[in-house]
Amino acid sequence: MSPDWKLLQAAWQQGAPPASTRALQANELRTLVAARYRREQRRVGNYVVGSVCWQAMVYAALSYLALRYRTDPSTLAYCGLGGLLYLPFTVVFVRQLRGYTRRYRADDVSSAAVQAHLGEQYEALRQFFRFKQRFDLLATPVTALVMVGLFIRLRWVPAFTTSPTPSLLLGGLIVGIFALALRWENQHQFAGPLQRLSALRQDLDASGTTG
Predict the structure, then answer these.
(1) According to the model, what pLDDT value does residue 108 have?
(2) Does residue 92 contact residue 109 with C-beta atoms inside 8 Å?
(3) According to a count of CB atoms within 10 Å of the terminal CB, is the N or C end of the chain lower?
(4) Is this model's pTM higher than 0.85 or not?
C-alpha cells in the first residue's frame, strides 16, 4: 500500500468529518486511483504500440519475401510458416488488449465501477500474459528456424548441409536475443503491472470505498 494511500485512508477513518470533507476525501481517493491506474495503462500501452509495430514489420517482411521469391517453393514455405505462427498471436492480442487502453476517468464513475473496471482489465491482462508465455516458448525457436531458413535461401548463410556451424550459431544467437528481450518485456510490461494492479485492487478493498 502506497504512503499517499495510507494517509488518505487514515484521514478517511478519523471520526465522522463533515459531508464536504468526506466528499473531498472521496474525490482525492478516486483521483489517486486514477493516477495509479493510468500509470499502469501507459506501461501496457507502450507494449501495445511496440507489439503492433513489430507485427506489422513481420507481416510486411514476410509478404515482401513471398512476393519477390514467389517462384521459390522453399521461400514461400518459410514465409507461410512465419505468417501462420504469428496469426494466432495477433488474433488473441486484438481480442484481449483492444480495450485495455480505454481511457478511465475518476470523476464520472462510482468507486464500485472503478473496482469492476480494474477487475476486468486485470483479468484481460492476466489471460493475455498466460497465453503470451506459452506462445513465446513455441515462437522463439520456430522464429529462429524461419529466419535461418530464409537467410540460407537468400544465400546470406551457407547451406546447413554444406556448413552447419554458421546456421547453428545464427540460430543460437537469435534464440538468445529473443529470450533476453522477452524476459525483460514480460517482467516490465506484464508481471510488474499485474502486481501493481493487484495491489491497487487490494487497496480499494481495504479502503472501504467500494460500497
Answers:
(1) 45
(2) no
(3) C
(4) no
CA 56/CA 51 separation, integer angstroms: 8
The CA distances from residue 143 to 100, 179, 186, in Å, are: 27, 12, 18
The residues, ordered by sequence, that sit 6+ positions from 104 with a Cβ below 8 Å of its Cβ are: 34, 37, 38, 41, 114, 117
3-state secondary structure 40-91: HHHHHHHHHHHHHHHHHHHHHHHHHHHHHCCCCHHHHHHHHHHHHHHHHHHH
